[in-house]
Specification:
325 residues; alpha+beta; Phosphorylase Kinase, domain 1; Transferase(Phosphotransferase), domain 1; 2 domains; five-stranded antiparallel beta sheet; 10 strands
Length: 325
């Protein structure tokens, strides 16, 4: 964080810490002000704003105005808020409040996190940015994946499947924080589908490639996510994290096709070469090849059977690498 930003934060903190509560004190939506859009597009909008009662900046998620009148969209936002709130883990974002604004529209407030996502870091590494390569060594990136995977392991223990694991949803804070973000398409084991059935693959694809997001996020889908009528469990997240690991190692995705149909065909039928064969100049250890390829096996029964197994394999590699260095 720059010195100017630090000074600004100190100034804001000192001005609010000892301030008296507003005369017109409210615990309603009126306590929020100074809204700034962080992200928009698709079905929702994320805004930063000031909580005047506590003197802190928070993030508020609500529906885009054109979607607010649809019961199905309100149901999804409510479900996302409740799922995210249940996941009280160091690598997930805390939810502070669920409510309705002054117009009666649903919103939820959560911690506003600073930083950049893993995809932005990987792009700079692939472009040869030396400062980024020095800052994010392979060991550090593996540590990032362990922390994000720990959030998944916790979610799985609570019966929640993320279903949208990708580098854009792994946020890296300026002080070493790692957050697994965006539980908007998460599924809870045993819960009924959406009011009109569960999210179809085509609609899920449209949601994942909404305005302002990178095209091609289905690159991280598992074979069972694409196949109609196939049961999706925690091993779909293991597959997706394996694809992220592949991209970290090889600096490219394993299943990218010329179009969405070819990408889906690759995911279902093509076994990619090990990362070390794709990026020979990076001298990727064979042990990491093995971890990666096991995670992205086509059959879920051939993968790691739970997230802690994959975490353990990566930790074991890091420990062996430290001993041999």
């Amino acid at each position: 964080m720059s010195q100017s930003k630090q000074s600004a934060h100190r100034s804001i903190l000192s001005s609010f810490t000892d301030a008296a509560l507003p005369v017109a004190f409210s615990n309603d939506f009126a306590k929020y002000s100074e809204f700034q859009t962080i992200a928009g597009g698709g079905h929702g909008v994320l805004r930063a704003c000031l909580d005047a009662n506590l003197g802190r900046t928070v993030a508020i998620k609500s529906l885009n105005p054109e979607n607010d009148n649809f019961e199905r969209e309100r149901h999804r936002l409510l479900r996302e808020a409740r799922i995210t709130a249940q996941l009280q883990h160091p690598n997930t974002v805390p939810v502070y409040e669920l409510g309705k604004d002054e117009e009666g529209k649903l919103f939820f407030a959560m911690k506003k996190v600073e930083g950049e996502n893993l995809f932005q870091v990987l792009v700079r590494i692939a472009q040869g940015d030396e400062a980024t390569k020095e800052q994010f060594s392979l060991d550090r990136l593996l540590g990032v994946l362990i922390l994000a995977s720990s959030a998944l392991a916790y979610a799985h223990s609570r019966g929640v499947i993320h279903r949208d694991v990708k580098p854009e949803n792994i946020l890296l804070g300026p002080f070493g924080e790692v957050y697994l973000m965006d539980w908007g398409v998460a599924k809870v084991w045993g819960m009924p589908g959406e009011p009109e059935g569960d999210v179809p693959v085509k609609e899920l694809y449209q949601r994942l490639t909404a305005t302002g997001k990178r095209a091609g996020t289905p690159l991280y889908m598992s074979p069972e996510q694409i196949s109609t009528g196939t049961v999706v469990d925690e091993r779909t997240d293991i597959f997706s994290m394996g694809v992220v690991l592949y991209e970290v190692l090889a600096q490219r995705e394993p299943f990218r096709g010329r179009n969405i149909d070819e990408t889906f065909k690759n995911i279902q039928q093509v076994t990619p070469p090990p990362p070390s064969a794709v990026a020979q100049h990076l001298s990727i250890p064979t042990a990491l090849d093995e971890i990666c390829l096991r995670a992205i096996e086509k059959k879920s029964s051939a993968r790691y059977q739970n997230m802690m197994e994959m975490i353990g394999a990566i930790r074991s590699f890091r420990g062996d690498a430290m001993l041999s260095s």
